[in-house]
Amino acid sequence: MDCEDMQMIISEEPNLSERKEGGKRGRKPGRKASNEKIDIRAKLERSRQSARECRARKKLRYQYLEELVADREKAVLALRAELERYRLWSSELSESRIPNGFQQLLEETGFVKQEIIV
User: Fold this and answer.
1) Contact at 8 Å (CB) between 106 and 115?
2) pLDDT at 30 exceeding the cut of 70
3) How far is CA 74 from CA 24, 33, 48, 63, in A?
4) Helix axis angle, 34-94 relative to 102-109, nearest 10°?
5) What's the half-sphere exposure (Cβ side, CA atoms, 13 Å) at 82?
6) pTM for this prediction
């Protein structure tokens, strides 16, 4: 191969540093088609719908948690009342008195058997 053949081969190969205009990736500025605008509008509408659904789920989750907290607060109040009742009973028992409702509790739990009068 002589020098002329080498130059012909080199001139036929595309220059790697140069790129064709059509070979670029990404969006082309100023070339929006109407179907792309429709796609963007559909995408925006889907996004809005998704946001609405997310807010609705969040609202339901907060309502559920508020109800759960309210139920737990009621349970805590009931347990505090029961604890106070047991404290009163304990103080009355230490003074050798039978408190009101204590006999019924013993019967319900089975510590004292009810006598059946015939």
Assistant:
1) no
2) no
3) 67, 62, 39, 17
4) 110
5) 7
6) 0.50
Helices (H), 1-118: 3-12, 34-94, 102-109
Residue type, 115: E
d(CA 41, CA 90): 73
Q: Which residue has the tokens 């009342």?
A: 81
CA 47 to chain centre: 19
Dump pLDDT digits (tens) for 44-96.
Answer: 999 999 999 999 999 999 999 999 999 999 999 999 999 999 899 889 888 88
Quote the CA–CA distance of 22 and 31 in Å, as a whole number.
Answer: 13
Return all residues near 88 (Cβ < 8 A) that are at least 6 apart: 99
Domain-by-domain residue ranges, the chain? Answer: 33-99
56/60 Cα distance (integer angstroms): 6
99, 105 Cβ separation under 8 angstroms: no
Q: Calculate the alpha carbon distances from 52 to 46, 59, 113 in Å.
A: 10, 11, 62
DSSP state letter for 116: P
